[in-house]
Amino acid sequence: MRPRLELLLLAACLLGTTAHAKAPRKHAPPAKHAKAAAPQAYGERADVMRFADQYAQELGYEAAALRRLLAQAKRHPRVQQLIMPPPVGTAKDWAAYRARFVEPKRLAAGLAFWQQHESALARAEERYGVPAEIVAGIIGVETFYGQIMGGFRVIDALATLSFDFPPGRRDRSEFFREELRQFLLLCQREGLDPLAVKGSYAGALGYGQFMPGSWNRHAVDFDASGRIDLIASPEDAIGSVANFLANHGWQRGLPTHFEIALPVDTVARATLLAPDIKPTFTAAQLSEQGARLAEAGQAHAGLLAVIELQNGDAAPSYVAGSENFFTLTRYNWSSYYAMAVIELGRTLAASRVAGQKP
User: Fold this and answer.
1) CB 279 within 8 A of CB 313
2) pLDDT of residue 23
3) In this predicted model, what pLDDT tens digit does every residue of 290-334 receive, in sequence order?
4) pTM across the whole model
5) pLDDT at residue number 91
């Protein structure tokens, strides 16, 4: 997220979780690892069997059947490697990060996707208030428009992170156990074979890389087929991405950000940057601190966040993020991710206006 799997791993390590509770993705390329050991089946390991016994009835399984199913899940050392953060001191570089997503092949795929699913994107915008370019941007950043949806068995990824979360970073095994429960619930409801479903190393699924819990909470049957399928139905994915953002506070017609120049004074800069991506300041308060907002930003009635995008050794870039920018980071807790989605979507929309073909 070049061979299919390598693209997935690169994109996943670049980006971190989808705010729909994915495991945090990072801004730097993945570190090089030694060759991982082969996956090993869990078998009747005690903690895995306790999990089966605890949730079997709730999930609609016979206890023995769920035990047999989870015994076939495998601990995947490569998953343990990929969930780890990049090395300390890895520099962030917005320009390089942007270039990985706003590039000719992804733009061509995005134009073709938009052309093919123009009606669904327009319906989603009308129903949920989320612009087509934002939905197209998310699907493009997440999975290259469905070309890179993940090569790990989801049951292996979630079991590994549930029962063998690696040391060396904050333990998120409890989160992944809940996602494993949600995945089994999803498979029961949608008639999926838990041993066949594939996704990312963190267990994310489909065109929009929803975690199972987000699928269960926010996915919609947008193609009116009678079932929700974020893996095989681009229309369901389009509607579900828009619904996710709407459920997390997206405001119809509100820009995502405005241009801003920061004050020279270092104390004022530190004050403005301290809240990070959370909208905190009015336009008037930004002006009082010496920041210079674009005219459209000065007219904004809501709160704004001062977003810093580092550019390696070059000077950082800054924008004033609105409440909708913050909503985008609920999909993936990263300002770099949000800006990549915005930039890809805007470039696609401008190319369509200019009459550019896939």
Assistant:
1) no
2) 38
3) 999 999 999 999 999 999 999 999 999 999 999 999 999 999 999
4) 0.89
5) 82
Domain(s) of CATH 1.10.8.350: residues in the chain: 4-88+148-247
Is 142 an active-site residue? yes
Which pLDDT belongs to residue 96? 95
Strand pairing report for 152-153 and 198-199: antiparallel
- Among 125, 142, 179, 323, which one carries the catalytic annotation? 142
**How does pLDDT run across 249-269, given as a tens digit for each residue?**
999 999 999 999 999 999 999
Residue-level pLDDT at 285: 97
**SS3 string of the chain?**
CCCHHHHHHHHHHHHCCCCCCCCCCCCCCCCCCCCCCCCEECCCCHHHHHHHHHHHHHHCCCHHHHHHHHHCCEECHHHHHHCCCCCCCCCCEHHHHHHHHCCHHHHHHHHHHHHHCHHHHHHHHHHHCCCHHHHHHHHHHHHCCCCCCCCEEHHHHHHHHHHCCCCCCCCCHHHHHHHHHHHHHHHHHHCCCCCCCEECCCCCECCCCECHHHHHHHCCCCCCCCCCCCCCCHHHHHHHHHHHHHHCCCCCCCCCEEEEECCCCHHHHHHHHCCCCCCCECHHHHHHCCCEECHHHHCCCCCEEEEEEEECCEEEEEEEECHHHHHHHHHCCCHHHHHHHHHHHHHHHHHHHCCCCC
| CATH top class, domain 4-88+148-247 | mainly alpha
Inform me whether the pLDDT recorded for 194 exceeds 90. Answer: yes
- Residue 319, both tokens: 């924008």
